[in-house]
Write a structure and sequence with these properties.
CATH architecture of the largest domain: 2-Layer Sandwich
Order of helices and strands: EEEEEEEHEEEEEHEHHEHHHHHH
Helix content: 40-55%
Shape: rod-shaped
Radius of gyration: 45 Å
Number of helices: 10
Strand order of the largest sheet: 6-5-9-2-13
Strand content: 15-25%
Largest sheet: 5 strands, antiparallel
Structural class: alpha+beta
């Protein structure tokens, strides 16, 4: 292969992140031309060595010290040697898309409910450390455009995103079903969490945005049904507590009314509660109180055997009739009932 005197790369597209010079047969004294927003890096044995910034560089033993140390280049012009030269595009790529192909399983910290979450957004990168990037990412590839880099890192994003989402929901104490209202905070949180991982590969995250969080409709419907039943159970529990409280307050009122010596209500309650008849008597007494406070129409009361018995009892308690008269009349009413 012919020796190369002039080494240059004019990228056909800004999407091309790295490009490998096709020839590895180089010669001291050749001109290495690096355009703006580029870096050129010598690679030997998979290791990134000397890096050159924008400008025109004449290759000599003095300006490629790491490579010279590795292969012990002899002094003198036009000396041939072999090495790879990679051109790195240092511009920022801001409009890269990312998304989860499958759902990420998280446990909702608010409802303690398993949720399948999918997320989508955009991210931007810049190659910050050419040595790290070439050594750990490029490998044996001859080119690496944004699409290949994106494909490589989507798995990294999803893996980090799964942990970051779980931590975000727990630390912020919010439900996964409320995540859409916290998109900005979530983007910042996840961006910081994954930045360290990308820095390990020589890549700087310049922006990371979560644009949409979605939950499968069937899971959302299932959760809504479960939440609806839970709310019903909670309401029933609250109702039972409220009913117990009302019952206790009713007995307090009944006891106070029973201690009142005046009026029909006091007499009726005294005949129930005073006899020590327990809860059943209390309920009956409550019914009597309601009847006394809300009397039925005269026609209905006249034909009501219960009302007749109550009047007979009042007459017995008042000494207007004898016990024998009361028992005889009660038997007559019960036989006709």
């Amino acid at each position: 292969m012919a020796l190369i005197d002039r080494i240059k790369f004019d990228a056909p597209s800004d999407d091309l992140l790295v490009w490998k010079h096709p020839s590895e047969e180089l010669v001291l004294g050749s001109q290495l031309i690096v355009n703006q927003s580029q870096e050129a890096i010598f690679v030997k044995g998979g290791h990134g060595l000397d890096v050159f910034g924008p400008g025109t560089h004449s290759l000599a033993t003095g300006n490629i010290p790491l490579l010279n140390r590795l292969i012990n280049l002899p002094f003198g012009s036009r000396t041939p040697f072999t090495a790879e030269i990679w051109y790195i595009n240092k511009t920022v790529k801001r409009d890269l898309k990312w998304g989860t192909q499958g759902a990420i399983q998280v446990i909702d910290p608010v409802y303690n409910f398993p949720v399948s979450v999918r997320a989508f957004g955009r991210w931007g990168i810049r190659i910050e450390d050419s040595r790290k990037f070439v050594s750990q990412i490029v490998g044996t590839l001859h080119t690496a455009d944004s699409a290949k880099i994106e494909e490589y890192f989507i798995g990294e994003i999803v893996q980090r995103l799964s942990d970051a989402l779980a931590k975000f929901f727990v630390e912020q104490n919010i439900s996964a079903f409320q995540a859409s209202a916290k998109i900005n905070e979530l983007s910042t949180f996840v961006g910081k969490d994954i930045s360290a991982e990308f820095a390990r590969f020589g890549i700087e995250i310049v922006n990371f945005n979560v644009e949409r969080i979605s939950i499968p409709p069937e899971e959302l419907k299932k959760f809504q049904d479960i939440l609806g039943r839970k709310m019903e159970i909670d309401q029933i529990s609250k109702s039972q507590v409220g009913q117990a409280y009302t019952t206790m307050r009713t007995f307090d009122t009944l006891e106070k009314a029973a201690s009142n010596e005046g009026g029909v209500t006091g007499a009726l309650l005294a005949s129930g509660l005073g006899a020590g008849l327990g809860l059943g008597a209390g309920i009956q007494a409550g019914q009597k109180l309601g009847e006394a406070m809300n009397p039925q129409p005269a026609v209905s009361a006249a034909n009501d055997p219960v009302m007749k018995l109550q009047k007979l009892k009042q007459m017995l308690d008042g000494g207007l009739i004898t016990k024998e008269d009361f028992e005889a009349k009660k038997k007559q009413l019960l036989d006709n009932f």
